[in-house]
Specification:
The protein is an alpha+beta fold. Strand 13 and strand 14 form a beta hairpin. The structure holds zinc ion (ZN) (2 copies).
Amino acid sequence: MDLNKNLEKYAELAVRTGINLKEGEGLIIAGNLDTLPLARKVMEKAYEAGAKHVEFQFNDDEMILIRYNKGKDFVFDNYPKWKVDALEAMYKDNYHHLFINAPDPELLKNIDGKLVARSQKAASLASAPIMQYRMTGFTKWTIIAMPSLPWARSVFPELSDAEAIEKLWEKVFEATRVDQEDPIKAWEEHDKNLKKYKSYLNEKQFDKLVLKGPGTDLEVYLAEGHLWMGGSKESQKGDSYVANIPTEEVFTTPHRLKVNGKIKATKPLSLNGKLVDNFGFEFKDGKAVDFYAEKGYEVLEKHMENDEGARFLGEIALVPDDSPISNTGILFNNTLFDENASCHVALGRAYAYAMRDGSKSTQEELSERGANYSLIHTDFMVGGPELEITAYEKDGTQVKLFEKGNWTF
Ligand code: ZN
Ligand code: ZN
């Protein structure tokens, strides 16, 4: 593998397909020290595309730990307003946002889960105004990931550090289609395919989906006027951009009060830097009334106490078992990848844009139609080679969507 050449292709994919940066626009790159080799290439591609300015915003895992370990108690209910204001000023000034994650999946494993939850709650409350810019397509944004040493070690514990990093890069390039001759063209085709399923599901407006698999027998009614989404999004100016690279899902909004039955996660979940494994839920009238977890029970419990909506579903997503990520055959220990390996549902907030007229409706109107509200949005994976999904039309007509984990058409 020619790492340098692939980095170049990855950077180009992020700028052209991800953000779709236009001449005269600004770019914010968020990343840590590990991301510098890729961030520099991205900066190069951004200026080549005509960026007016590229700003690198630095974050650091060690510093995050210092804050948790040394900060006084009140620190964790605060989030600096000027940070939100600065970002808002940049967004208003036509800056778009690329997040490069080089994560440590167990960074917070020795930090009190309650503290983490409080801190995240303060951050999401404070950031609500800027989230609005991204949710409504005013600001284009993209999340990509690159291997860090702790991440590579967690995926390939049996390999040496150097081998683990190299191997994880290979898998990242496969999963993002960067290993293909022309990744930008490959993404155009992939996007067309996602749009095909999306249009079909939107035309049908199915009443409910029934998921069956090992440990799973769940009935999920869809929200009134739910909208299936997937692939590229369109900004307010009409530019298409891809918020997650990779993405393999088409997804929509379940009815928050009409979910019944059992569901078992098929992959572990990294939650606030902690791992939750072998877990599942029982839903009654939309609410997770019971749950179990072999590992990380407490952090999951705490997470669901965030607010009232944290125990209800806000997303259901369909991903074929036969897709580049799933075909890598590994668990990435990273939601960006693992959620795209598999069908999933999310606890917490529904996306307004996954509802008809969603961005024009108030939260009350959306709730009325069944869209859940919460400060959290946490995906967990439920897909796999044995998952079957049947869709029901309003008149009771059944259509088998998934068989043995894949689309039937
Ligand atoms: Zn999703
Ligand atoms: Zn999600």
